[in-house]
Design brief:
Number of strands: 9
Distance between the termini: 33 Å
Shape: globular
Number of domains: 2
Structural class: mainly beta
Helix content: under 10%
Mean pLDDT: 89
Strand content: 35-45%
Radius of gyration: 13 Å
Amino acid sequence: MAIQGPNLAVTFKAGEDMSSQENRFVCMSADMTVKYSTQFPTIQSVGVLDNAPDGTTEEARVIVAGIAKVELGGTLSAGARVAAEEATGKAIAVSATYVPAGVLLTGGNSGDLATVLLSSQSVV
C-alpha cells in the first residue's frame, strides 16, 4: 500500500493538460511551467504531480522533496532506484541513460501506486 508522508510541495503553473498525470513525474519547462516530458532519459524530473490540472489556467501541485505516491511503469521492488519513464512519466528502474529521481519504499506492479523517497541525484 502506497503512503504519502512528510514532503515539500510547490505550486507551479501547469504548462498543459495534465489531468491524467497525477502521481507521475513532471519536469520544468523553459517558460517556468511544469509539463510532462518526452526527454526524461536526459533531464531531471522536478518532482511528482500531486493533483490533476486540466489546462494551462490551473495550478500544478508538485511534490519536490520527501515521500510521495508514484505510479509504477513496471514491476518493481522496495529499494529500487527509479527514474521517470520517457513515454509516461511513470516510475521505472534506473538504467545508465536515465537520471535517478528517488528510491522506492514500497514495490508493486505496473499501474500500481508505490511510495517513493524523492532524491536529487545525477548520473556520473
